[in-house]
Amino acid sequence: MRVSQTSLPSSNRKDLRTLKSLLPYLWQFRGRVVIALIALIIAKIAMVGAPIILKNIIDTLDPNKPNGSTLVLPLFLLCAYGALRLGNTLFNEIRDSVFARVRHGSMRTMSSKVVEHMHKLSLRFHLDRKTGAVTRDLERGTRSVSSLLNYLVFSILPILIEVILIATYLLLAYSYWYAVVTFSTVIIYIFITMKITEWRMKYRVTMNQMDSKANSQAVDSLLNYETVKYFTNEKMEIKQYNETLGHWEDAAVKSQTSLSALNIGQGAIIAIGVTLIMVMATQDVINKNMTLGDLVLVNAFMIQMFIPLNFLGVVYSQLKHALSDMERMFNLLDEPEEIKDKSNATTLKVTHAIVKFEHVDFSYYKDRQILKDINFTIGAGEKLAVVGESGSGKSTLARLLFRFYDVKSGAILIDQQNITDITQESLRENIGIVPQDTVLFNESIYYNIAYARLDASDEEVYSAAKSANIHDFVISLPDGYETMVGERGLKLSGGEKQRVAIARTILKNPRILVFDEATSSLDSKSEKQILKAISAISTNHTSLVIAHRLSTIVDADRILVMHKGCIQEQGNHTQLLELNGMYATMWKLQQEEQKKIEKLKSFNPEVKRHKD
User: 559 with 551: CB under 8 angstroms?
Assistant: First the structure.
């Protein structure tokens, strides 16, 4: 699979922008960062100082030294050597301990920030997103924060500080050629590593893309388990998933083989540099320009410096991978908030709960207008029903009322307050909804009902369940209200989920109620009980009822009949039948359908109007 070069996060500019985006999350821990850096520098000074002390110990013990003095135990130097070794370990551990809060705190803050931002994004974004891919990007992105900080503080910075300290000592203590060879080796090593790693990044990008895509496919197929089974498409789902993993595998193999080639090149550069240094040092010892201790010192420096440097390629590669993963996560943060509160937005003050749609036009996409010049008012305590064929714009009214989208033109008012001028939180606090497709949390039944009001008492939760005709069913379960409902509530039937949603709305007890096909999943007996409950809780509440079955809204104060985004007819049930228009035709068809069902029942008592 080809990946365009413009999609590769290989640009230094992109990396710098990603690092800049990370800085605000580190700033809150700036004190700890400074302490960790000081501990890091002290640890490296101790590490570089240890070979210098070792050189002096060896020179002290050299039997061929010029003055020919008697050998004595260099106790002070040995204690200093041990102290420096201890100091290196001690300050490294102090660095790790102090920096742990920075690393994990930044991950927590960033994860919370991304999830908070995603909750602020519009319904349009969430309808278009692929859940599996987004969650994988979030998971990799937050994990990469820890990786990035680890690489910078525990690998990159220590190596750079150590190289600078060693090169400086070599420059001051010996011929400048030692420093030249050391610096040259490091610079060539870093240059080659960066160039080849930049080239290899395209494989990592492809791996990430295929990994997210495969995860998305797996999640989608499992969430739609029943649909897959209905159409026996298991083989197709596995084939798609396997093909995507095949692209991931190809990219992963190329990434690994190119890494091996890079490691061979890095090893060659280091081997050449170390060999040159040792040849120079050995010659200086022969020429008596250096002592045996100096030779040991130079050798110790080379080993001490080039062993961690040998892993710089892997570290740099992982650093680039982390930056790539972080960039995808920051892209989520860059998603614009389509629906935002105005800077001077006020809190909704509900007095009479009068809802008014004024000349509302709306379209999800430019080439398809959904609502056209919609005008209606729901009076205080009035029950307004909206009916019409599928795609006529009925459910869109509820989404606009909740301000999941903003109208293209016109306005929606609640007690003369334009909903675009008030905070979204206060707007939604005053509206309750029973949606057509109820999705529950993978928690207990109690949790899902109490979700409407987190401070509700047990008695209030039970009372709401009784009003929704679900209490008796719940207490009959082995675990009662603690029964887990499963992913998206799949352990419950459609009717049971719908009754949980109704109980949740009853518990919230808002001034404005929206019922979007609220009884669509209920059997005849439950439907009558729920309609009775809805009628009871709708008293003194402004209600918008979106319905398909006309029998459920015959008691509505007023009914709007929608057709192709326009209000075609309006009036109460009797008036609309007398009008003998669209509503009357729909009523006649549904009555005929009901008669057929009743006729089937007379032959088979087990036939039910709807399967619960």
Answer: no
Task: Mark which of 319, 334, 349 sits at the end of a domain.
Answer: 334
pLDDT band for 533, please (50, 70, 90 cuts). low
The CA distance from 103 to 573, in Å, is: 64
- Three-class SS string for 504-528? HHHHHCCCEEEEECCCCCCCHHHHH
Q: Where among 289, 307, 334 does a domain terminate?
A: 334
Q: Which amino acid is at 250?
A: D
Residue 295 sits in the same domain as residue 407: no
Same domain, 489 and 592: no
In degrees to the nearest 10, what's the CA dihedral of 182, 187, 189, 191? 180
Residues forming beta bridges with residue 570, ordered by sequence position: 560
**Residue ranges of E strands in 327-391:** 355-365, 368-378, 383-388
81 touches 47 (CB < 8 A) = no
Residue 369 sits in the same domain as residue 303: no
Model-level pTM? 0.66
Cα angle, residue 286 at apex, residues 284 and 287 outer, rounded to 5°: 60
Compute how many other C-beta atoms are within 10 angstroms of the C-beta atom of residue 184.
Answer: 14
Structural domain containing residue 206: 18-334
Quick check: is 2 in a domain? no
Q: How confident is the model at residue 612 (pLDDT cuts 50, 70, 90)?
A: very low
d(CA 219, CA 487): 12
* CA distance readout (Å), 70 to 60, 74, 290: 10, 12, 21
If one counts the domains in the chain, the total is 3
Residue 281 and residue 297 in contact, taking contact as beta carbons nearer than 8 Å: no
Asked if 189 and 197 count as a contact pair (C-beta separation under 8 A), the reply is no
576 contacts: CB under 8 Å, gap ≥ 6: 559, 561, 569, 570, 583, 584, 587
Q: Per-residue confidence at 1, pLDDT binned at 50, 70, 90?
A: very low
By percentage, how much of the chain surpasses pLDDT 70?
89
Tally of CA atoms within 13 A in the half-sphere of 6 that contains its CB: 0
Amino acid at position 477, single letter: L
Report which DSSP code applies to 346.
Answer: B
The answer to whether 233 and 285 have CB atoms below 8 angstroms apart is no
Exposure string for 86-115, b = 16+ CB within 10 A, e = fewer:
ebbeebbebbbebbeebbeebbebbbebbe
